[in-house]
Amino acid sequence: MRNWLTIIYRISAISLVAVIVGAVASLCAIGFVEAVAWLNHRLLVSPYARIQWGERPGLVTAATVLVPTLGGLVVGLLMRYGSSVRRALAPPDAILAVQTDQPLPSFRDGIVSTLAAIVSLGSGASVGQYGPMVYLGTLFGALAAKLKLGVKDLKAIAIACGVSAAIATAFNAPIAGLVFAHEVILRHYSLRAFAPVTVAAATGYVLANVVFELEPLFLVDFAGVSHSYEFLLFAFEGMLCALLAWVFIRLIEKAGKLAAQARLPQTIKPAGAGLALGLVALWMPEVLGIGQESLRFATIPGAFGAEELGLLVALKLLVTALCVGFGFVGGVFSPALLIGILFGSLFGMTAQTVVPLELSGLVAYAIGGMMALASAVIGAPLTTILIVFELTRNYDLTIAAMVTVVFCNLVSYRMVGRSLFDRQLRARGFDLRQGRDRAILQSLSIADYASTDVTRANATDTAGAIRTLLVEQQRAEAVITDAQGYFVGCVRLQTLLTLPDAEPVPRKHWRIAPAFIHATSVWDAMNALEGFVGESVPILDDDGRPVGSVSEEAVIRAYLGIVDDLRREENATA
Question: Which is it for strands 536-540 and 477-481: parallel, antiparallel or unpaired?
């Protein structure tokens, strides 16, 4: 009876958390979008506002240059003086918190990052809105995880709930929100998390679609793929999108390195990117902001010419890399969607001219390019396929986009890895390519598994004295230090039995390696212990003085414990 009551309590508690986190994340995502739209209209970033003020070209020109420049300055000041981490918080932080159980930056840092994202997008920066919305969901999920509910893996589940609700709200796509949380954040399909994440995604969808009746991202009319040979074109388009994804990611990384080398104050760098963006926008205003209008027009034949599409793709790539690299706060999902749909439209337009066969129109190539490029950048092929299906309710269009997405990811995985997020985490020292267990082991310090019970001896002590000490303490190895207490080596009892009692131990009998420091990870310790023969390994402080030791058994137990926890989480056991 008690077991049933416990199960009912846990189901009720996690369901309530899912509904609350999903509702809060959804409402905040809606508020985020509305705040950005309001700023875009007031600051003459949106095309509609620019048309309204068309009779005053001087004002529009001044706003085009000054708004992103001043917006960049505000963003720089916010990040410099408002955030303790002094950087934008984004999906990689959510992935890291879930994969390695590391704490997120403070709630204040998350709010400051969100405000900076609103200012960035509101002032026309070429960054995305979905990354900040994902982190908003993460932020409220992490708050819920602090509750003492007695629910196992509450932190990972609550964060996944917040993220799924945010994506479901953003795209009116609850299934895509559910899959995104598992595919990108959890990175596995957890039985324990599946139900609450589904509840949160459905909550976000109901608020967005039923309560607030938000407009869909785009509306398309597609009668179906008329010819089987077009699937070869979809596959080829996917491979070209993989190349474009590589260019996009490399440009962002190069811009980040260029910004790090630039001799400018951190507060000025976003303003410099904003000035460059404004000058480009004088020539091609479509590069400003999220570009939802351009995204919708890209599926309409004749809305853009081929040269205009090619130029817009190139400029959007450059200004997005510049804005992201130089410190504007925002994601890369929205720019990837726009660049992808423009490139897909260009591909479809070119194919209609070059291929001497009848094709099914522009829509399938535009949507396929959009989802293929976005999937390669964020590492979510299943999510993007489902977004197409949920937004269009068109099975034929979904199949066409699926082929493009699959072939894009087959190639892009070899070129850039799983996603831009993984590359960003790898640059921070967390490599998720070898699995979640390795990432956790890399995040844990070997000092957490150390013992302070160490047999110490001085380098001038005789072999007999050290041997007597080891026998009294029932140990097989002693740590040797010099007169100042610095580590110089280890000596084994078996070695001491072969040495004269009245003489110090010669240096040639000291074992110097391996030795760990506090910062040594469990993963690095496991690699260092390969082929090791001995009782334990000393752990040193930053100055080189021994503060403890860790046995090979303790390291193995740490690894087995982590693997066991992961398997229980994935299979919902215990």
Answer: unpaired
Distances (CA, A) of 324 to 13, 59, 190, 259, 277: 39, 27, 33, 10, 12
Q: Is 361 helix (H, G, I), strand (E, B) or coil?
A: coil
C-alpha span between 22 and 278 (Å, rounded): 37
Q: Say whether 291 sits in a helix, a strand or coil.
A: coil
Spatial separation of the C-alpha atoms in residues 85 and 113, rounded to whole Å: 10
- The Cα–Cα gap between 103 and 407 comes to 36
Phi, psi angles (nearest 5°) of residue 68: -65, -30
Name 248's Cβ contacts closer than 8 Å, sequence gap at least 6.
317, 320, 321, 332, 336, 339, 373, 377
Predicted pLDDT of residue 492: 87
**Residue 243: predicted pLDDT:** 96
Residue 400 in tokens: 């066409």
Is the previous residue joined to 57 through a cis bond, with omega within 30 degrees of 0?
no
Residues of the chain with pLDDT below 70 are 1-2, 218, 569-574
Taking every pair of Cα atoms in the chain, the longest distance, rounded to a whole number of angstroms, is: 100
CA 292 to chain centre: 23
Mean pLDDT of the chain: 88
Order the strands of the 516-517 sheet from edge to edge: 516-517, 536-540, 546-551
